[in-house]
Write a structure and sequence with these properties.
cell membrane; elongated; mainly alpha; single chain
Length: 261
């Protein structure tokens, strides 16, 4: 069997393993999903009218449209925390050491985690998106091409954050440490343009919101879903995604290749 065929076969096996784990133990994914859903309901039904007036909207529906793109990306960040925890558990419980002794493609373990996490992220985004639609979110101005581009951005963003989360899981001594190390993936959206425009933030705080991966990705997704201008945010979002994906891949591969002490 060729190396490529071996890699595909073993990666598929590891993917099935991770999806079975997610199906048998759904509590972690569901707990991480609660954060964006609760924030969505809180900001729409408690702060919706006030926040809508703050961004120049006429009613609560204007803020729903503004809020949802940011929360979709926040959902991806939340889901990938579970990936970091899962990788750390595999490392600390000895299953990785056993895989190293077996005649399997070495990179298939990480590929299975990454592909499984991206699929879970997409499923989580669909669930949060369904809740958003149920409470009034509409994307009537987006074309079919813009919808396709929005989906591509979500998948690319999920891939980038997943590789970073895998690296965090590999360097963490246990699941608790992995969860703490991956916490920036859910905190950064809170410091971005997800909830309020960057222009409305204090001057000293704006650089924190502007120069991070979530803000350009949120503004790009918002423009695609609402049919508004994207400006320079589009290429910045793609650059951030590609940069984080490459960084996470090489970090994870180098860490995984080290022989255990």
């Amino acid at each position: 069997m060729s190396n490529l065929a071996l890699a595909v076969r073993d990666s598929s096996t590891m993917l099935r393993r991770n999806l079975l784990h997610a199906r048998r133990y759904p509590s972690l994914t569901l707990n991480l999903l609660l954060t964006p859903i609760m924030l969505l309901l809180l900001f729409v039904y408690v702060f919706g009218d006030v926040m809508s007036a703050g961004i120049g909207g006429g009613d609560r529906s204007a803020y729903v449209a503004y809020l949802v793109p940011g929360l979709l990306l926040m959902t991806i960040g939340s889901t990938t925390i579970g990936t970091a925890v899962s990788v750390a558990m595999d490392m600390s419980e000895g299953i990785i050491a056993r895989f190293r002794t077996m005649a399997i493609h070495r990179g298939s373990v990480l590929i299975g985690h990454v592909v499984g996490s991206v699929l879970q992220s997409v499923a989580s985004v669909v669930l949060v998106g369904a809740v958003a639609v149920a409470i009034g979110f509409r994307s009537t101005d987006a074309t079919a091409l813009e919808w396709l581009a929005a989906f591509g951005l979500l998948v690319l963003f999920a891939l980038a954050l997943t590789w970073i989360a895998v690296g965090m899981g590999l360097v963490s001594p246990n699941a608790e440490a992995a969860s703490n190390n991956a916490m920036p993936l859910i905190l950064l959206p809170l410091l971005s343009s997800a909830f309020v425009p960057v222009d409305g933030m204090p001057g000293w705080f704006r650089p924190i919101a502007e120069y991070q991966p979530f803000t350009p990705a949120i503004e790009t997704l918002r423009g695609l879903l609402l049919g508004t201008e994207i400006g320079h945010h589009g290429w910045l979002a793609v650059a951030w995604c590609l940069g984080l994906a490459v960084l996470g891949y090489f970090w994870s591969a180098a860490t995984f290749a080290r022989d255990p002490k």
